[in-house]
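Lecture notes, continued. The same structure-token format from the folding unit now serves as the input rather than the output. Read the line below as a description of shape only.
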């Protein structure tokens, strides 16, 4: 989902494969047969160049989302209301860092380097999830992010555990187990505030839900008819469901959970549709979504600056680790 920073071709070329040799066509036919049979593709297997680039784009965007996603919550670790909540939040933020590492490692199997991926992020060429460009204004935002943002992430990511590229699928199995804990801790934190909290705490929860609902349902990406990558990604088994299908599943699950919590979802048009056996919902502000992913969200500049600072501040650690590895290699050689 980031820019085509690591692409050697332009976007149009990526979408229209160049003329191929007979050998290549045969390899591609065999590759498609394997995809159709539901086989997993491993790093050393032959794959079309566009498949590889699509995976690098999606996996590295996903990795960037995990590490940028540490920032809005990291901001609250020192202000958690109890030791228990602080320990949970600390563990959750650490988990996100770990998810980033698994995903960078999965992207590296496709021949891109971590330095290239970080460079694309730090120079603003890379995309990461729109959701992390919104501010976290109160403690209730921590619970709401767990419930809605991690809930949306799980809805999107569980199917990726069966995606056609094996290293990505394997990373996602572990990530989804942890994301499920993240979602539940968020729901439990909100339930505690809604059942045992003061009227002011309950109002704080409702305010957080009001602010996070629409950005959460934007996380699934543009509507299917405006999603340039979906058709090919679904053909290759990278995506198992379309953006709109996943968004609908999430809305349906959230409506029931909101009832348990006792909060109102901020959409007057949200209504059960008996014929569709699903909830109808109001129009999403896609202009806001496109502005956020273009860099004009409320916190884009702050998030990027924080990542660049972390990278610069860590230079001495990288230098020390490299020097240590060099020394170790020299000792081994001797
Ligand atoms: N934020 C930013 N950019 C987005 C976006 C979002 N929520 N949704 C879509 N886009 C971008 C796409 O990257 C694409 O841009 P590009 O062509 O320049 O790369 C463009 O909008 C069009 O969208 P498409 O639907 O065609 O793109 P995809 O087919 O890649 O679908 C996706 C988008 C559903 C997000 C898919 O990439 C995906 O499933 N990614 C893996 C999951 C992921 O990255 N999740 C990140 C969020 S949450 C998280 O990781 C942290 C957790 O702890 C909460």
């Amino acid at each position: 989902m980031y820019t085509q920073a690591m692409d050697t071709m332009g976007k149009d070329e990526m979408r229209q494969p160049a003329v191929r040799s007979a050998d290549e066509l045969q390899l591609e036919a065999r590759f498609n047969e394997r995809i159709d049979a539901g086989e997993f593709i491993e790093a050393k297997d032959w794959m079309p160049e566009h498949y590889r680039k699509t995976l690098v784009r999606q996996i590295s965007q996903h990795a960037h989302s995990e590490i940028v996603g540490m920032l809005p919550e990291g901001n609250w670790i020192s202000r958690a209301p109890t030791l228990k909540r602080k320990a949970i939040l600390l563990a959750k933020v650490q988990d996100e860092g770990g998810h980033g590492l698994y995903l960078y490692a999965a992207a590296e199997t496709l021949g891109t380097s971590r330095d290239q991926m970080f460079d694309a992020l730090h120079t603003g060429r890379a995309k990461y999830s729109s959701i992390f460009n919104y501010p976290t204004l109160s403690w209730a935002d921590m619970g709401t992010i767990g419930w809605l943002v991690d809930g949306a992430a799980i809805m999107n990511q569980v199917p990726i555990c069966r995606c056609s590229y094996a290293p990505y699928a394997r990373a996602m199995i572990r990530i989804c187990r942890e994301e499920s804990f993240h979602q539940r801790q968020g729901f439990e934190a909100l339930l505690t505030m809604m059942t045992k909290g003061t009227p002011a705490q309950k109002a704080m929860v409702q305010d957080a839900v009001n602010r996070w609902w629409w950005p959460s349902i934007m996380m699934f990406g543009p509507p299917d008819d405006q999603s340039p990558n979906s058709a090919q990604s679904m053909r290759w088994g990278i995506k198992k469901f379309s953006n709109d299908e996943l968004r609908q599943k999430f809305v349906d699950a959230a409506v029931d959970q909101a009832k348990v919590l006792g909060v109102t979802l901020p959409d007057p048009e949200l209504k059960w549709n008996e014929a569709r056996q699903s909830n109808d919902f109001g129009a999403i502000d896609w202009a806001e979504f496109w502005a956020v992913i273009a860099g004009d969200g409320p916190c884009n500049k702050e998030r990027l600056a924080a990542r660049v600072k972390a990278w610069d501040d860590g230079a001495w650690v990288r230098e020390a680790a490299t020097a240590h590895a060099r020394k170790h290699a020299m000792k081994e050689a001797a």
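Point for the exam: The pocket of 3-hydroxybutanoyl-coenzyme A is lined by residues 1, 3, 57-58, 61-62, 65-66, 69, 96, 127, 129-130, 149-150, 153, 156-157, 218-222, 227-230, 233, 239, 243, 293 (CB under 6 Å).
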